[in-house]
Amino acid sequence: MKRIVLFIIALSITSLANAQQLAFPGAEGFGAYASGGRGGNVVHVTNLNAAGSGSLAEAAAKAGSFIVFDVGGVIDITGKSITIASNVTIAGQTAPGGGITIYGGRVIASNSKNVIIRYIRMRGGKSVNEKKCTLTLDNCENLIMDHCSVSWGPWDNVHIVDANNITWSNCIISEGIDPQRFGSITDGTRNWTVHHCLWADNKSRNPKMKCYIQYYNNVVYNYANGVVGGHSAADNYQDLMNNYFIAGPSGSNKYFDQWTETDHMYSSGNYFDGNCDGVLNGSLVTDHHSATAMSKPSLTSTAPMNLETAQQAYYSVVEHVGASRVRDTHDLRIIDQLTSLGKKGAFIANEDELGGIGSVANGPKPTDSDNDGMADDWERANGMAVGQNDANGYTFGNGYTNIENYVNSLAQKTAFLMPPTSAKAELTNATTVKLTWNNPNTDKVTAVVVEQSENGKKYYEIKRLAGSAKTTTVNDLQAGKVYYFRMKFVGDDLESLYSTPVAVNDEYMREGGGTPPGTTSFVPLSGKLYRIINYATVPYNSGTTLSGVPKYLTFTADGALGTTETFKWDDPAIAWEIIPAEGGVYIRNYATQTYIATVNSSIGGVDKIGSTTKPAVLTINYTEDQQPAQAGTYGNVSLFRINTTANGNYQIRARGFANDWFWGSGTLGRADMVFTFAEIDEIYIKLTLTKLNSTIDSATKLAREAQTDVTAGYPADAFGFLMDAINEANEFKENIDENTSQEEVDAAYAKLYQAINEFKTTMIYEFRGYSTDLAYNIYSYGVSATSSNSVAKPDVPRRYLVAVKGEDGQPDQLEYKIGLADNDIDNGQEDPLASDPAALWALKDAGNDFVYVVNQATGKYLQVQKTLTDSPVAVRPYFANVDNGKNAFFIYADETESSLFGVGKPNEEQTGGEILMLSFHADRTRMRWVIEETGVDVTVTGIRQINNGDADKTVRIYNLQGILLHDYPQHGMYIEQTIDSDGNVKTRKLFVK
Description:
With 993 residues, the protein is mainly beta. Helix content is 13%, strand content 33%. It folds into 6 domains: 23-354, Pectate Lyase C-like; 376-409, no CATH class; 421-505, Sandwich (Immunoglobulin-like); 508-685, Trefoil (Acidic Fibroblast Growth Factor, subunit A); 690-760, Substrate Binding Domain Of Dnak, Chain:A, Domain 2 (Up-down Bundle), CATH 1.20.1270.90; 774-950, Trefoil (Acidic Fibroblast Growth Factor, subunit A), CATH 2.80.10.50.
């Protein structure tokens, strides 16, 4: 036993010997000695893509990276995650503009060591699985997270289990969302320091302290339960010093909650303010709430501790907490709630209640000639050579590399000005516009610059207002002309980026519209196109009214005149040229260059009244002014009949079929027989952009829904190529002008279309993205061996793959048992089979997309046979289809795809049945298996079998003092030793549970 104890001691001594240099000046607590990416490759994040070349996801996944940012803004990873490897520094303070926000997915640093994360916002949101967290730090070691904001986690904002030597400092952990709305949970974490953090608008777990924790100078605001004890059978040690608990509108007085005698709490200098009166006037906390009170702190770190009073900590938090170099609108809102001291704050269901993620401004990247991650100006100011990549040199002699000294110099509030937000332009009359905007800055703006444009490209300054201004009026505009406006802020030697441009008189981009009232004689103008709109509620009906949605005149695919309710402002198919002609006008469709021609058909026929060679002379005749309910206009519009000069002056009117029109009597002003015209400048839809716009929309939707490096997802590099193609297409569209040809537009469309198709061919069919720490259910929706069903149904009970103990020395058998249907489970019923160890399976990578699958009840391995085996056998899951919203797989014996599982005939009791071995696959539910993560930890038996692969070994369990245990401990560290039949030690491994 002595050798075991010495082994543990040696590990501790080695860790201490390497823990000398602080992660950055001012680092405190147990994670203060994290080395991050010190001395590693400097990696630039060059775009805001979710994955692929130049993305944060690609950079963070590389061990030994020192990450800097060339861009600022929101990285939308909806449906995806970013994984942080070991020995990584993420220097968010280098991001220009408003910094970096990660939105829509998860950030995972599980099992990573020596990580530094600074000045990053991580906001999960409603797209994250409801049982997951925004940030996961399980089994981390030597990590410090500083000046970060973590929010919108559905289960908790942060999940941190079995971690060691961790510091969170100056962070905001806020607004957990449905279903739990919690701050953070931990279990088994040791040596965790949390200081100068703000916990706001979380119902509970601020955090849950099932751990050994140093918790000082934090502020907890607007909660139902404040900090929560471990309240478990295991001993936990919590040192709570000089924290401030402040009730809010949703809050209570439960500053400490759910504690038992196994929680060993040292409480000193903590204050509670529960009167919500807008004044910081709390009182000292003396109630320890059932915890075992300790007379002195239980934890001591060799790193610095700069302990302030609770009152001082409150002001420090207000000033510095979060990604505060430039706070985004959400952090500013949280700080505003806190400083209301009880007046503001709320628990939220999800980010939709807040208007979504919003935007974060980009900004100019400092010049970095040698691309070493350090700005040229800073290098010159510090006597360093510009043009020489010396990021990892030690010029300063303070133990930090050159680039560490550079990024540390940026770790302070910046004078960067956030641009105006929520800009709006509203016509108060035909020639006057009212502009409004919000100022997300505090007191740094000295002037507001307002600029105007007539084409949306070239702007000129029209006003310079006081820094406090939030509105202005622009007069003497030309009625009906399109104007664009944008604003920016100016401070002392500073300027913000521009606001989002806003426009007025841009009716051509809006749905509906019509001819201005009082226009009794319609005269087409040169350079204009027109939408021809009907607002009838019912066609070919005397009771019709003008309350219908806009219906745009167009030609259908078969050449008939018809209407569509589908509106795209730049769609040439709903745009018409109206050309003066002798005795009237010609009307020609802009997309097809086909004229409306005179054809008089019967009511039962289809009127193909299009012609390229024989246009009809038509007249446009005023009927009256009326106000269509859904025209989108402030008042009346002029309405007209469209008549032919031939065939008895018949008029165009709707008959009641989608594509059928006919000629009416020629004099009726009924709603289904009158039209109005929305005028468009021809330049805006000169080119046929419909296919390009639609393809950009399709590609963007595909990218948003695509996951990377998981089954039914796509490789990260392929995703990067698709994003590059989308960005290129958008850039092309933004630069279209009067010199752009249709051939260039078509080429851009074809290139993006090809990129989409190439991306789809890279779809991953192999089994990816699984956990080796959690158990899985494997089940099918196949009902029997003869079923031809190819579509899974939620009312079909699941067929769980289970292991059944063999009788009389026979091998364990593989069968299926019938559980509940998805409909039952979704309605709140608990399926007992789902947690039965016989139906729980642990997974381990066997290489080349094969896996080992071991049963948790028997410790035996799955093979593509009716029996299980003692020795590991690799099987190959391969994506087959999506069953009830879940990936389903064929499970093959090898790559030949000639041997796989299937659902056999059920027994008479309908409780289960046999597993069939098949030699072919088809699109049948009975051959497909869902492999679903359960959230149940892999049992020690499963870990042992997968790691060691020999079920015949005798196992002995010892604690760290070398004392033999009769069974595995519920929590904590232990040593597992395997002995062969001759009594020889075969393996000895350290576990944490």
